Description:
The chain is mainly alpha-helical. It has helices at 23-57, 61-84, 91-120, 123-148; strands at 7-11, 16-19, 158-161, 167-169, 186-189.
Amino acid sequence: MIWWGLIWLGNLAGGVVTTAPERGDVMEDLKQAIHQAYTGEAKATLRLKVFAEKAREEGHPQLAKLFEVISLSEEIHARRALRLLREIKETQENLAECFESETKVAGVAYNQFIKLAESSGDKDASQYFSQSRDVEETHANLYKEAMGHLLQDRETTYYVCRVCGYVADGLLPEECPICGAKKEQFVICGDQ
């Protein structure tokens, strides 16, 4: 809806006529609404993928398909929201933004989360946050390296630890340097 330049009729029954909200306020509210929708859709996408895995493990293949289909639908919604938010930029900008984000998350957010988990005595949460922080640091390094090699279009194979999310670049480690998982716990991504 376009509010600006129009007269906003607040309460027609009472005959109250007010001017439209400032365009900047409406646009900021709209941006926040789209961001909230994106966040919800992105979370739903992952949650439904995990639910599909669980349904499949429990012998419910049709329910797994249902969760997967709706997950794909939610992913489409999230992608549309990203486009509306103009979050998708040129690759070099995307790399730089991802590097900054990973660095900030690893250096600030996870350290606070770790302190909270430790103060509550929750060792599992503390381990999760510590490992996630360490993995985020490796993500930042991968982005930084990629920014330097963007024009080379270097092909590599990545290996992702299914336990903690660590990403190995080019060589499959015998053991995950973050959580200690054996090489069988890694999934291969990219061309070989």
